[in-house]
Design a protein that fits this description.
The structure holds 2 protein chains of 2 kinds.
Chain A lengths: L5 H5 L3 H11 L4 H11 L1 H18 L1 H4 L31 H37 L1 H15 L3 H12 L3 H27 L3 H8 L4 H12 L1 H24 L11 H8 L7 H29 L1 H4 L2
Helix pairs in contact in A: 3-4, 3-14, 4-6, 4-14, 6-7, 6-9, 6-12, 6-14, 7-9, 8-9, 9-11, 9-12, 12-13, 12-14, 13-14
Chain B lengths: L1 H28 L4 H6 L5 H11 L5 H13 L13 H36 L4 H15 L2 H15 L15 H35 L2 H8 L4 H38 L5 H11 L2 H29 L1 H9 L1
Helix pairs in contact in B: 1-12, 5-6, 5-8, 5-10, 5-12, 6-8, 7-8, 7-10, 8-10, 9-10, 10-11, 10-12, 11-12, 12-13
Classes of the chains: A mainly alpha, B mainly alpha.
Chain lengths: 306, 318
């Protein structure tokens, strides 16, 4: 993190900054937060799991023992063994390879959805909070209406318009995450704009855009990081649910939700088919939940000294 | 209190209004001509034109919206393109199954969450608390559709105690129906229960060290009396609100759970309608579920005001 951003980040919390600097040497507050996150066992577990699965997604072709859509006739639904480490599915495809490649679907849709949702939510939330009045009312009422759709319903609505597919799911989940980011940003703006240093910036003639970029946004980064981590977990869970319902990634492309859906017909003959994709999914969600909790502990100044 | 109720009701109006516009536009945002979508892809041009005239699809959009809203206000959701039956009738057939599942899920949620949450709070920093905390973290990370599969694997496939899916009749054979109901209801309830028990714990903890609780202990009340009469009573305010909100979330979850257990409710109806491009059904059930969601949110807010006089009075003074 650039050292120039530090004074702005800390401007409203000078006392805290002094204490942190006294206790942790010359390291910046972001390094401190990262350090606190990693020192927390839950945070360390979360970071490890997320990194491991991101690694698996990026290097999937290198580490998968088989091609994930290659069928092996004669070895359908075999239990885990020396060749197929986690067994095979109903078409004789290697489950381990499909799970490794399936992480791509989950992570990619999660990243796209949260990226779009966060970007759009931050911009509209800043606008709503800063301009207030009619702009604020219109934007926030639309988001209230959006929040009145449960995410799965929103997904079904968007997918029935755009047609099923991974991108439609990503858009649907972006729409579902936008209101939370917008609300967060709006509340940050409403608190920050009354601060003396913002008033001071206004007095020396700073434009609204500059105030938001240089003063409001840096002060909202900590809660935004927590919200992004939280939204990733939500998006990945919703993605797999929508894919499970047959609205997302299409076969033969591997996805965890899709594999679990296919497994339902073979639970009697091949229980491992229904277990392993879910283990991968639950592990990722657990990792993200732990990471969110650890980030919250590390970034929230009220909790750091507990 | 009346001013508070009216204020909240007025706030709900734009939300419902925007939601109906969204659901109405669904059909018109679809790529392609809505008349062809309604008539079916292989319909003759004459039929498409008849449908266009009958449905008023040649009128301007705002006019169509008002007409559509008028029909809906009279309970007319149109006809299913696929089965040719009135949508209201199809939904009427499926709704009881979903309601049954949601009610059972909500009851189970409360039965699981409240005792766990209270126990974790009054036994804070003991093994019981740690086990419950770890369990809730784990439970929150298990997606409900995978939980459903695991439960089928254990109770239906391995042990053979319970049926893996479908639904009986609660009126004719309640005992058999409970067997059908228990796995889907539990699948629906568990993730919600984990959330609710965390909230219960936080809420009880907040109350546990209040002055009036100390007074109750000081005058020599038994621990159970203190916890149930003085702590829980006050801690219940946010809990009741979240229970109301949960009903909306349960409906979303029911869509998934119904699919796992082949439960013949609104979720399976809606999903097969998405597959068949039967948009009248999709529109109607989205609208219905959103309507329930808005009403439930409203009830949650009102209950908050009803249970906590401070909120009511603060709203009245403004």
């Amino acid at each position: 993190m650039a050292t120039t951003s530090v004074p702005q980040v800390l401007s409203p919390g000078g006392v805290l900054a002094g204490r942190l600097r006294a206790s942790g040497g010359a390291r910046g507050p972001w390094m401190q937060a990262a350090h606190r996150t990693l020192r927390n066992p839950m945070g360390a577990f979360g970071v490890t799991v997320v990194m491991l699965l991101a690694f698996a997604a990026i290097f999937a072709p290198l580490i998968s023992p088989f091609n994930p859509i290659e069928q092996h006739p004669g070895s359908e639904l075999v239990p885990p063994n020396g060749i197929y480490l986690l067994g095979t599915d109903n078409l004789g495809r290697d489950l381990l390879s499909r799970i490794i490649f399936g992480s791509r679907s989950s992570l990619l849709i999660g990243v796209v959805a949260v990226g779009l949702g966060a970007g759009f939510g931050i911009l509209t939330g800043l606008a709503a909070g800063y301009f207030g009045g009619a702009v604020d009312s219109v934007i926030m009422r639309i988001y209230d209406a959006l929040l009145s759709f449960p995410a799965i319903l929103l997904g079904i609505g968007v997918v029935s318009v755009l047609g099923s597919g991974p991108l439609s799911v990503a858009y649907a989940l972006a729409v579902a995450t936008v209101p939370n980011f917008a609300r967060l940003m709006r509340s940050r703006v409403l608190t920050e704009r009354e601060r003396e240093y913002v008033v001071a910036a206004k007095c020396i003639g700073a434009q609204p855009g500059r105030i938001m970029k240089n003063h409001v946004l840096p002060n909202a980064i900590a809660p935004l990081i927590i919200q992004i981590s939280l939204s990733m977990g939500f998006a990945i869970l919703a993605e797999s649910a929508l894919t499970f319902l047959g609205l997302g990634t299409k076969p033969p492309d591997p996805s965890w939700g899709g594999m679990l859906n296919e497994s339902r017909a073979y639970l009697r003959t091949s229980p491992s088919f229904g277990i392993f994709p879910g283990v991968a999914l639950a592990l990722l969600l657990l990792g993200l939940n732990f990471l969110t909790d650890a980030l919250r502990d590390a970034l929230d100044p009220r909790r750091t000294n507990v | 209190m009346l001013a508070f109720v009216i204020r909240r009701l007025v706030q709900a109006v734009p939300v419902i209004f925007l939601a109906t516009i969204g659901v109405f536009l669904l059909l018109h945002l679809l790529p392609g001509d809505p008349a062809i979508l309604m008539a079916g892809a292989d319909a003759s041009p004459q039929l498409v034109e008849t449908v266009r005239k009958d449905m008023g699809l040649d009128e301007p959009l705002p006019y169509q919206y008002v007409v559509w809203l008028g029909h809906i206000a009279h309970g007319d959701f149109g006809r299913s393109v696929f089965s040719k039956l009135p949508v209201a009738q199809l939904i009427g057939q499926r709704a009881p199954a979903t309601i049954e599942l949601a009610v059972a899920g909500e009851i189970l949620t409360i039965l699981i969450a409240l005792p766990l949450g209270v126990l974790a709070a009054v036994r804070q920093r003991t093994p019981a608390d740690y086990i419950i905390s770890a369990g809730t973290s784990l439970g929150l990370a298990v997606p409900n559709f995978w939980l459903g599969i695991l439960l089928i694997l254990l109770f239906a496939v391995t042990l053979g105690w319970l049926p893996p899916g479908q639904r009986g009749d609660l009126m004719k054979d309640p005992v058999a129906e409970l067997k059908f109901l228990i796995l889907p209801a539990f699948t629906l309830a568990l993730p919600q229960a984990m959330n609710l028990s965390r909230l219960t714990k936080a809420s009880v903890l907040e109350m546990l060290y209040e002055d009036h609780v100390r007074t109750a202990r000081a005058k020599g009340l038994a621990n159970t009396a203190v916890v149930t009469g003085h702590v829980l009573r006050n801690a219940l305010v946010p809990i009741v609100t979240v229970i109301c909100l949960d009903i909306g979330r349960l409906l979303g979850g029911a869509l998934v759970v119904e699919t796992i257990f082949a439960w013949p409710g609104l979720g399976t109806l809606t999903l097969s309608a998405v597959g068949n491009r039967d948009y009248q059904i999709v529109q109607a059930s989205l609208l219905l579920l959103v309507g329930v969601f808005v009403v439930v949110n409203l009830i949650a807010d009102l209950s908050y005001g009803f249970l906590d006089p401070r909120i009511r009075f603060a709203a009245g003074r403004r």
